[in-house]
TrEMBL record:
Keywords: Signal. InterPro entries: DctP_fam, TAT_signal, TRAP_DctP_sf. One of its GO terms (biological process) is transmembrane transport. Pfam families: DctP. The keyword Phosphoprotein does not apply. Residues 1-26 form the signal peptide. This is C4-dicarboxylate ABC transporter.
């Protein structure tokens, strides 16, 4: 019979023998590839942000974390509205996307897209640089099932159409407008008499080309890169009605599988990529109207008075969706934006 003292002496080596395989397993549990979904490829600032992020992570981890980008939302058959659900289910390992696309799964994450909430980059920057606000938002992301890493910018959404110049809300009446799968965007268009049509971008392009859809709303970067002027879109209004964030995030089940050291590397890589991505968006924003006009497209930039009219016209859908998101949180954003108007 082994004496108690002998058992005690054996306990240390046995514990180490048991612990070592578990540690080795944790390291070996890393996937050979982590799938990242982006709606657009690296030809766009959005997709470029994802590419920069993946490259930085690969370099800084020595290939230990290998993120592969899947543009066109191909991991969810082109339906970007399913990305968050797919991430929860383990189909997507890394998210680099616009929360408006996930509003059907986690409505509150689309809070920044309320119409004319952040009317210009001065307001947008003030909100994004407010640590208390962003910490509160990041808690919402965690509750939705992912660890938030950094925030980039998808760009202000502008409207184009094939029928006529849009200079006032009445010009929207009767236009069939393609919108992403967000009921809020649908409400905004309906409030101005347009007929919103929900479809993926993959489906939107042939619909625009055939004339089945009259109009679409996207950042002008998308208009240029996707050559939307070749799809019959002759008129653009640069009204800056909505600007979603570009959220870099990792589903909880993946995040917790990485060591703290690797988590730190990935977070810092996302923050560096987001800064570069925002710089790309801003450069494009400064020159997009001129570049679109050079294609023979008529571009209208609303006056301050016209902007007030647009804001008034969208007041009802704004109030309705503010109540459905996080009204207290939205009020805090409004306060930050208001402070930029006084400065």
């Amino acid at each position: 019979m082994i004496k108690r003292r002998s058992l005690i002496r054996l306990a240390g080596p046995l514990a180490a023998a048991v612990a070592l395989p578990r540690y080795a397993f944790a390291q070996g549990a890393y996937k050979s590839e982590y799938k990242m979904s982006t709606v657009v490829p690296p030809a766009f600032a959005w997709g470029k942000g994802g590419e920069i992020f993946a490259n930085l992570v690969r370099e800084r981890t020595g290939g230990r974390i290998n993120i592969k980008q899947y543009p066109g939302a191909s991991l969810v058959q082109g339906d970007q509205t399913r990305e968050l659900t797919a991430a929860r289910q383990g189909v997507i390992d890394v998210l680099c996307g616009a929360p408006i696309n996930w509003s059907g799964t986690a409505r509150e994450l689309a809070v920044f897209t309320l119409p004319f909430l952040m009317p210009d980059h001065k307001a947008w920057d003030a909100v994004m640089n407010n640590s208390a606000l962003m910490n509160e938002y990041f808690d919402m992301v965690r509750k939705a099932g992912a660890e938030p890493l950094a925030v980039g910018e998808t760009g202000y959404r502008q409207i184009s159409n094939s029928k006529r110049p849009i200079t006032r809300p009445e010009d929207m009446k009767g236009l069939k407008v393609r919108v992403v799968g967000s009921p809020m965007y649908g409400d905004i268009m309906s409030a101005m008499g347009a007929n919103p049509t929900f479809m993926s971008w993959a489906d939107a392009q042939p619909a625009l080309a055939s004339g089945a859809v009259d109009a679409q709303e996207n950042p002008l970067e998308v208009f240029l890169a996707a050559k939307i002027h070749t799809l019959g879109q002759k008129y653009v209004t640069k009204w800056n009605y909505s600007n979603d964030i570009l959220l870099f995030a990792v589903p909880n089940q993946i995040w917790t599988s990485w060591t703290p050291a690797d988590q730190k590397i990935v977070r810092e890589a996302a923050q560096d990529a987001a800064r570069q991505q925002v710089q790309l968006v801003r450069k494009l924003f400064d020159e997009d109207a001129q570049r679109v006009a050079a294609l023979g497209v008529e571009v209208h930039v609303p006056t301050p008075g016209e902007m007030k009219t647009w804001q008034t016209e969208t007041r009802r859908p704004y109030a309705r969706w503010k109540a459905q998101f996080q009204p207290t949180f939205v009020s805090k954003i409004e306060e930050v934006v208001a402070s930029t108007r006084k400065a």
